[in-house]
Amino acid sequence: MANVRTGRRYRANRLADSYDVLIVGSGIGGLVNAALLSLLGQRVCVLEQHYTAGGYTHAYEREGYEWDVGVHYIGDVHKPSSTLRRIFDVVSEGRLQWAEMDAAYDRIILGEREYDLIAGTENFINGLVHRFPDEESAIRDYVALIRQTSYQSSRFFAGQAMPRSLGRAYGKSRSLLLDKHFFQTTREVLETLTGNQELIAVLTGQWGDYGLPPAESSFLMHALVAKHYLAGGAYPIGGASAMARSIIPTIQKSGGEVFTYAEVEQILIEHKRAVGVRMADGTEIRAGRVVSNAGFLPTVNRLLPESARALLPSQGKDKQIQLSSAHLCLYAGFKGTPSELGMTTTNLWIYPSEDHEGNLKAYLATPDEAPFPLVYVSFPSAKDPDWENRYPGKSTVEIVTVTQPEWFGEWQGTTWQQRGENYESKKRELSEKLLAILFRRMPQLEAALDFYELSTPLSTQFYQRNEQGEIYGLDHFPQRFDHPSLHPQTPIKDFYLTGADVVTAGIGGAVMGGMMTSSVMLGPVKARQMMKLLKSWQPSDELPA
Question: Whose CA is closest to 35, among 235, 256, 237?
Answer without folding.
Answer: 256
